[in-house]
Design brief:
This protein is α/β, with parallel strands linked by helices. It contains 10 helices and 9 strands. The mean pLDDT is 90.
């Protein structure tokens, strides 16, 4: 069973991410892309190297930076859509990136018809939703038959990092988020990584087998998967002990015809 590390009686996920993501904007302007965004960019170039003008893509849970959606624009996708449940993030994207068709919406209830997209991207989002299985079913629903989904999910269950997160979240019950954010928002690693894991209201943590089973139940098939590398020797015993199947593990899925 997946591990539920969610906190009760705290702010909503959408309001929490307003401050976290706003502090990330200057990092993006400086060219400091997070490892997960670089990983996605590299994957996209390899997976879709040709003419993408007839392909439609969804960035599900885009955040204020909409980095995955912008990467798809750069790669020549004909139409790029994005949703986020945070109104502040959506407004920021509308004002700064008119090339993205963005609207407010939840991954658990996507505002699109069945089979709307050739590619669906949902990076680091579903493990912050109240119902992970429902979120995955929605991603599958809006994906066209023979379409491709790129989904990244916390897969570090029963690793050392899971217990580090447990400790951080215990501290988070004592030290208010606003205090920590005021002190450390300018420190990239702490704002983007520590505070995120420490205070986000909802966290589900999985093993890779659990994620595969959930994805299979949605009608999609996992065709490739890799942990995103954060500087730990890949495939080593150390990696397994520290982060299990992956701090963030990418599952590339296809929906059969």
């Amino acid at each position: 069973m997946p591990t539920n590390l969610s906190l009760e009686g705290v702010s909503s996920t959408e309001s929490f991410y307003t401050k976290i993501h706003t502090s990330m904007i200057s990092d993006v302007r400086d060219g400091a892309l997070p490892p997960g965004k670089r990983f996605f960019s590299d994957w996209l170039k390899q997976a879709f190297p040709g003419d993408n003008r007839n392909l439609t893509v969804l960035d599900a849970g885009c955040g204020v930076h909409v980095l995955n959606g912008l990467t798809c624009v750069e790669q020549g996708f004909g139409r790029v859509f994005a949703i986020d449940m945070n109104p502040d993030a959506v407004e920021h994207v509308r004002q700064n990136h008119p090339e993205i068709n963005v609207e407010i919406g939840s991954v658990m209830e996507l505002p699109y018809g069945d089979g709307s997209f050739d590619v669906v991207v949902c990076a680091g989002v579903v493990h912050h939703t109240a119902d992970v299985e429902k979120s995955l079913r929605e991603l599958s629903r809006v994906l066209k038959p023979d379409g491709t989904a790129y989904i990244s999910i916390y897969s570090f269950r029963k690793s050392l990092f899971e217990y580090v997160i447990r400790l951080w979240r215990l501290l988070g019950r004592v030290i208010p988020f606003d205090v920590m954010h005021a002190l450390f928002s300018r420190f990239r690693a702490i704002n983007n990584f520590v505070l995120d894991h420490m205070y986000v209201p909802v966290i589900w943590v999985f093993s890779a087998n659990e994620v595969r089973d959930l994805i299979t139940e949605t009608g999609m098939t996992v065709v490739d998967e890799h942990p995103i590398n954060y500087g730990i020797p890949k495939g080593s015993a150390l990696e397994r002990v520290l982060v299990g199947d992956g701090l963030i593990r990418v599952y590339v899925c296809q929906k059969p015809l």
